[in-house]
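In keeping with the milestone schedule agreed at the kick-off meeting, the structural modelling team has produced records for the first pair of proteins. Each record is given below as a sequence line and a structure-token line. The laboratory manager (R.T.) confirmed that both were archived under the project's standard naming scheme.
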Amino acid sequence: MSHPFVLGILGGGQLAKMSAQAAIRLGIDVAIMEKESGSPAGRLTRHEYVGWVDDDRLMRKFAQQCDVITLENEFVDHHRLELLEASGRSVLPASGTIALIQDKFLQKEALAKHGIPVPRFTAVERNRTFAQLAAELGAPFVLKSRKMGYDGYGNALVRSSKEFGAAVERLTGRHATLMAESFIDFRSELAVMVARTRKETAVYPVVETVQKHHICHTVIAPASIPAKTRREAEEIAVECVKAVKGYGLFGIEMFLAADGTVIVNEMAPRPHNSGHYTMEACVTSQFENHVRAVTGLPLGSTAMVAPAAVMINLLGRPEPQSLLDVHRSALRHPSAHLHVYGKRSSRIGRKMGHITLVGQDRETLLREAAAAERRIRL
């Protein structure tokens, strides 16, 4: 028998775990690199590398194990990906794509350069004042860390000079460089997953996302929007991926503005929370198409298998239940699909799992999924 094909994933959290599960089902071996042992993905493979990308020796050892390498988040310094590429390994998305995406200012520049609708934005140097930025962008505006921001941790809505000073202090503690964007008065938030290889592109349905404390909480598929808006969102999503020369899987977050226009918020070069529903609701899940895209396999159908689906994130809550009690609470609904990520510890607001319902009517699914979520304490 030939040597098994090994897919390397930088990161070992839930996105890596669900990608690994998809790879394993296809008979592809998986290698995981994560800072700590026993990560959700690391527990699925004998090829677990404990450490991080700043360790040259470990990186070389990891690269030797892998046939192709991908990542579960965009926070890996693109220069470290260049080291893997220099070793002769294929890295997808490539270092050049990650360099454009992981810095949100460079990301917006790349999108704007290709005529993609984005909020007005500017870099924030140390001497910029609230008054200057408000004159340029309007007030309120959104202040963002250019790197290392996720789940709202790198963002702040700024309405005054006092709020601006506090936000600068908080956000520069996360990353030294900041940017600011105009505030979008949106009707709803949308998201689209796109898988792309050099031969084909597959686009998932446009979904509506609902945030809770800046964390994606509920995903409704498909979004209840006019056909024209749906086509516009799909076309913009594909153009975003092309703008960063992207190959692999990408999640594009958008605003549906009050005037009906579609504006890109951010994009991620990896599986995305807004695509978890695809595991049960689509012919091919986002995770399988992630694996297919980075390994050069034909992409699978993104069509939904039912008219509607609702996914709700299960965020960490006080006094979590035992695991079997979680299952008893969630699976009281006969068609509920429960995913528990297997994280070692819980904290308030941490993504601990998700639950998906697939069916005929979105309003019914929303009501039933919300009722199930209320019973669960992870």
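The second protein of the pair:
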Amino acid sequence: MLGETEEGAYLLMEWIEPGNGDQRELGTALAKLHQVTAPQFGFRKDNYLGILPQINTYEENWWTFFFKNRLESQITLAEKSNRWGGRRQEKYLLFKKHVLQITDQQKNVPSLLHGDLWSGNVFFDQQGRPVFIDPAVSYGNREQDIAMSQLFGGFRPEFLTAYQDSFPLEDGWSERLPVYQLYYLLAHLNMFGESYGSQVDQLLEKN
């Protein structure tokens, strides 16, 4: 809760005592979150992915939204810090063309996303219930959350099994994960520097 007194503004948050839980419950909870949908992709306001601005301007087409508001907004930031040159741009344009070809027939539904689903942003309370924290929320393709969960580890196989049991992903989802992982690697490039550049390059070349 945000508030303000004569001494200044304050942020009041609930304290949740960490406990232990079952990652199957986590997978089921994420599936329930993703079943909340909206008419368009985006969100009612822009927000943040970590310290970086995240653009959420509504779009009816998922890939228009994803390339413009996710990948290309990060590329613009990388250009400003001299971390994006002509060679990477050439690779990116080929990457984009390939992705649009292989995803042309995919059905995309605007699902409520956590948006920054790495293992440090989830835990369990004392009753074993999953708790999601520090979201970069928007309505998008749910494969984006799955992609982030698989990028840096920390989620056991039963997490994904339980998710699939509750809300099965579309055929070919595993082949599309690198597309979404590029967003997070670009963000890490912008936040932490060229140490993530080789991963960005490898992913661009892979597709």
